[in-house]
Request: fold
Amino acid sequence: MSNAIQEYRRQKAETGEASYKKIAAKFGVNRVTLANLEQGKRLPMSTFNMSKQKLKPGEEAVLVEAIILASRQGIPYTHEHIRDEANAILQGRLGDKSEVGKRWVDNFLRRHDDHLHTYWSAPLPSVRAKAGNRENISGYFALIKERISDPKVPPECVWSMDETQANPDGTPTQRVVGESSLRRQHQQGQSNKQTITVLATIGADGSTISPTVVFKGKKVFASWKRDNICKLSYVMHSLVT
Reply:
């Protein structure tokens, strides 16, 4: 902006005329802001705040799109990843020593809270992530139509079962950033460790079956029966090696 102002004044002094529009385009700055600064006018607060931002609005828009794409693929950005990407963009424009500030990521997320949100990541094994392709999803809905919708199966005969897992080794989750419309942000992982599985079943008419817990092992501890507040069913299984 400083160079643009100097160029405008140089042209004005040499030729008697100069164009804010042409000079703003040449230096990649806002024409109205250039005119206001050159004339000594006070800038609106929104324009002043924007002028202090490390990345240009277009650069931030590209970064937002990259974060949303990674979120949809199950490989969300952490705050550190966002900082690294922002530094790479800034260094590509200003040089290797340029970096964003300590609070830049927080302020960036606040500016774009209509598109981005921070979540605790939920594990999503890579095998499951790869199974969510167009062919599998289309086949699932075609099967629902063929076996349930077209035959008009009554609601009391339609049941859905889902499972969730608890990892006994305490695998930590991370604070990650994803698309703001999500309820949960999954994160792909490579862990193949054994887990405790909980099965929940509900009918289309609202009926439910008591959840079932699947433990790996051969014996049942007495405390599992005594402390079973939710009246869960449980089964044991052991792997033969």
Notes: The longest helix spans residues 57-72.
